[in-house]
């Protein structure tokens, strides 16, 4: 059976071709094609054997067979097709080896063909490269020849163009010579000219030729005039050309006048195209200056008198210069708006007509500022005489300055609006400044004179009010026993505020008129000095008036001082008059303190104004700020001097009343009470209570009015004077021990009061007074230890110890002789 299957297998013919391995080659497909004829029979046999064994139990190599078949199966091969497959695989390998050899042979043949073709191709490429190189050389030679031919053609063209230009120039020169000969025929004869110069349709060409002939003739005349002495026959030639020049000048003038007349006629009809044509031709005559000026001068706003009258009426109204700055400002604003609108309309026409529109606008704007604006300024700004100032009731110098500031501001605004419309190279700002140059030169003097006039008018007004108040209250004679400080006009912070406001307004004008920092500083400084002088003068005069009331009260007080040997009736009358004088002194004191307080407020306003307004204007200029600070310090020091003099007089007034109260209220028994067995009185004496009450009442206004160093120096001086006055007063009395205790109580009361002064040196003096009062209280034998323990009271204590009631009886002098010897 095996041999039969092997024979059947060997009988199979293998057919392998190269085409089988091309494209999408698959080994699995190739293998399957080889074995599919053998394997199906094996599969069928395997399936049959599987079905025959399906009814038996127990597996054996996947099959269940009877024991009788075991030997038989062992003798047969498990896979009988293997021999056929091996033969098939051997044949396939042999076929594949043959196929590989065949393919290798074909591949080798193809390689040889490819090598041959590649060699041929390389040879062909080399030949082509040589051909291309030759072609490039040919093209280079051709390009070179073309370039050479082009350059030659360009040169020929240039020569032809130059020849044509020369021909054209020669032709034009011939025509110009012919025209020049016509103009050179005879002086003033313009009748034999070519039709060109009379043909209205060729005016532009005639104008151009006439200008060229005129330029040539004038140049020739000038050249011959220079070389006349060295050139033979030049005089005749020059003379001939002079005739041409004169005729050409006449013709140009006549032509220009014709064009201007045509321009005017077109302008009346608003024929912009004709105007533009004439303007273009006229631009050949002096660059068209005559046409530009003629057009601007013919504008209605420059020649119509009604326009000028309307301007004046609009700005000044029916009241003239008395209309007021606000009315004038509104009128100027309206006028400037109307001028700007007129110039805007003219600008549209100028842009459409003139080739050089900017030049025309420059002439127009200059004419507006120099004629129309200047005309209204001349009527507005009439300079007052500084020798004869206008009355304040009519506005004074301030009216002129305010109108000047308004006019300057509105003119500047107008200049900016006109600049925005376009005016060529015209320096509008410089021209505007020149309109006000004469006014600005004298401006600082007018500003100072105005401030002085306002100050004097205000002071006169205050004097008139004071006089009216005095007359209403009734005339006060110096022979009367009382004075009324209210009749003196008190310092007013409102007045100082008004002075500062006037000055601030003047400074704002200085800032408007002064563009350079140095000029501004130079104008601000004298204006500020006016304010400093006025404030200083006003405050000083007010302080002097208040001080005069203190002086009058002091004179009244001295008038009623009487001696001790007078009758009771006279003494009573004198005491009543003294009370009245004291009341007048207290009223004057209060008035002066109020004046000092208002001075301080006024100085604060002045300093704040300087810091907020003046300083920033002076700081950019070296030395200006420091100089003004020095001037301000001088003005303030003058006021402080008046304050110091008045405060000293206030202290005199206070101490005079203190001395009067002490002399009238202090009793001998206050410090030397009789030994009647009653308990000593530990209350302050009546004189002490009256003095402290008076000081508390009168110094209340001082504490409110004074501040800073003024308050400190005033209270220190008053405390020192009070200390000395009390020492002098107590030296008039004799003290016993109970009186010493009473004195110590008074000193405590005085010390508590002066402690409100906040002056440590005064507090120390009154503390020593309290210790010194012990010289009247301690026993005689303890005095020496008291002086030795308190050296500060030794000087005054040795004087006061002599006022002890028992100074002689207790032989106090001998007990303190050692202390006195050391002193």
TrEMBL record:
Compositionally biased intervals (Low complexity): 466-477
Domain Exocyst complex component Sec10-like alpha-helical bundle: residue ranges: 205-813
Name assigned to this protein: Exocyst complex component 5
Keyword Transport part of the UniProt annotation: yes
Biased composition (Polar residues): 478-488
Species per Swiss-Prot/TrEMBL record: Platanthera zijinensis
Domain Exocyst complex component Sec10 N-terminal residue range list: 83-199
PANTHER family referenced in this protein's UniProt entry, alphabetically: EXOCYST COMPLEX COMPONENT 5 (PTHR12100:SF0), SEC10 (PTHR12100)
Pfam families named among the record's database cross-references: Sec10_HB (PF07393), Sec10_N (PF20667)
Family named by the database record: Belongs to the SEC10 family.
Record keyword Iron-sulfur present: no
Positions of region (Disordered): 44-67, 466-488
Keywords, sorted A to Z: Coiled coil, Exocytosis, Transport
Lineage summary: Eukaryota, Viridiplantae, Streptophyta, Embryophyta, Tracheophyta
GO annotation terms (biological process): exocytosis; Golgi to plasma membrane transport
A cellular component annotation (GO) from this entry: exocyst
Domain of life of the source: Eukaryota
């Amino acid at each position: 059976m095996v041999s039969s299957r092997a024979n059947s297998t060997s009988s199979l013919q293998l057919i392998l071709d190269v085409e089988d391995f091309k494209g999408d080659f698959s080994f699995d497909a190739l293998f399957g094609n080889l074995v599919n004829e053998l394997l199906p029979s094996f599969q069928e046999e395997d399936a049959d054997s599987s079905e025959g064994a399906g009814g038996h139990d127990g597996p054996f190599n996947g099959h269940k067979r009877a024991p009788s078949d075991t030997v038989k199966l062992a003798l047969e091969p498990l896979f009988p097709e293997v021999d056929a497959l091996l033969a098939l695989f051997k044949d396939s390998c042999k076929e594949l080896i043959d196929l590989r050899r065949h393919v290798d042979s074909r591949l080798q043949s193809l390689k040889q063909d490819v090598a041959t073709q590649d060699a041929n191709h390389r040879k062909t490429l080399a030949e082509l490269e040589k051909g291309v190189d030759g072609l490039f050389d040919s093209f280079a030679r051709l390009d070179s020849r073309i370039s050479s031919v082009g350059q030659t053609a360009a040169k020929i063209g240039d020569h032809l163009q130059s020849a044509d230009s020369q021909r054209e120039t020669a032709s034009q020169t011939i025509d110009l010579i012919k025209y020049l000969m016509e103009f050179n025929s005879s002086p003033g004869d313009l009748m034999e000219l070519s039709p060109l110069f009379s043909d209205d349709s060729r005016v532009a060409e005639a104008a151009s030729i006439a200008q060229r002939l005129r330029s040539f003739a004038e140049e020739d005349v000038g050249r011959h005039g220079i070389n006349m002495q060295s050139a033979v026959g030049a005089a005749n030639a020059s003379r001939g050309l002079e005739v041409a020049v004169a005729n050409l000048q006449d013709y140009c003038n006549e032509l220009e006048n014709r064009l201007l007349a045509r321009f005017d006629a077109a302008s009346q009809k608003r024929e912009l195209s004709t105007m533009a044509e004439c303007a273009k031709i006229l631009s050949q005559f002096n660059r068209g200056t005559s046409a530009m000026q003629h057009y601007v001068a013919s504008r209605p706003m420059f020649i119509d008198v009604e326009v000028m009258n309307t301007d004046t009426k609009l700005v000044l109204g029916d009241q003239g210069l008395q209309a007021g700055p606000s009315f004038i400002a509104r009128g100027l604003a309206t006028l400037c708006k109307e001028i700007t609108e007129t110039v805007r309309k003219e600008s549209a026409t100028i842009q459409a007509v003139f080739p050089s529109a900017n030049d025309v606008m420059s002439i127009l704007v200059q004419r507006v500022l120099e004629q129309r604006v200047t005309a209204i300024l001349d009527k507005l700004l009439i300079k007052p005489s500084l020798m004869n100032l206008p009355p304040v009731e009519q506005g004074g110098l301030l009216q002129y300055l305010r109108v000047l500031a308004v006019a300057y501001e509105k003119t500047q605004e107008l200049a900016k609006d006109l600049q925005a419309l376009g005016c060529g190279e015209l320096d509008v700002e410089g021209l505007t400044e020149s309109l006000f140059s004469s006014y600005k030169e004298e401006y600082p003097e007018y500003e100072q004179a105005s401030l002085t006039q306002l100050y004097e008018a205000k002071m006169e007004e205050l004097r008139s009010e004071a006089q009216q108040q005095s007359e209403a209250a009734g005339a006060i004679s110096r022979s009367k026993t009382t004075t009324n400080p209210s009749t003196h006009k008190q310092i007013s912070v409102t007045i100082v505020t008004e002075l500062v406001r006037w000055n601030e307004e003047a400074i704002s004008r200085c800032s408007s008129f002064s563009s350079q920092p140095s000029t501004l500083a130079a104008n601000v400084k004298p204006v500020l000095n006016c304010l400093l002088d006025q404030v200083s003068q006003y405050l000083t005069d007010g302080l002097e008036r208040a001080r005069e009331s203190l002086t009058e009260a002091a004179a009244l007080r001295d008038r009623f001082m009487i001696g001790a040997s007078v009758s009771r009736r006279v003494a009573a009358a004198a005491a009543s008059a003294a009370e009245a004088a004291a009341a007048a002194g207290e009223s004057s004191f209060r008035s002066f303190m109020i004046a000092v307080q208002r001075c301080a407020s006024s100085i604060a306003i002045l300093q704040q104004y300087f810091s907020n307004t003046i300083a920033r204007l002076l700081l950019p200029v070296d030395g200006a700020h420091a100089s003004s600070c020095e001037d301000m310090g001088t003005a303030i020091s003058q006021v402080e001097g008046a304050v110091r003099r008045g405060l000293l007089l206030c202290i005199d007034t206070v101490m005079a009343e203190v001395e009067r109260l002490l002399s009238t209220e202090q009793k001998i028994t206050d410090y030397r009470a009789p030994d009647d067995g009653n308990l000593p009185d530990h209350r302050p004496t009546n004189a002490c209570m009256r003095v402290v009450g008076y000081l508390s009442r009168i110094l209340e206004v001082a504490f409110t009015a004074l501040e800073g160093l003024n308050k400190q120096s005033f209270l220190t001086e008053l405390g020192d004077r009070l200390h000395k006055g009390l020492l002098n007063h107590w030296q008039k009395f004799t003290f016993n021990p109970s009186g010493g205790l009473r004195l110590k109580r008074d000193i405590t009361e005085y010390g508590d009061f002066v402690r409100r002064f906040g002056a440590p040196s005064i507090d120390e003096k009154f503390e020593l007074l309290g210790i010194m009062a012990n010289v009247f209280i301690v026993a005689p034998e303890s005095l020496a230890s008291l002086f030795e323990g308190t050296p500060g009271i030794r000087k005054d204590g040795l004087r006061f110890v002599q006022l002890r009631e028992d100074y002689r009886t207790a032989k106090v002098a001998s007990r303190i002789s050692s202390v006195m010897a050391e002193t």
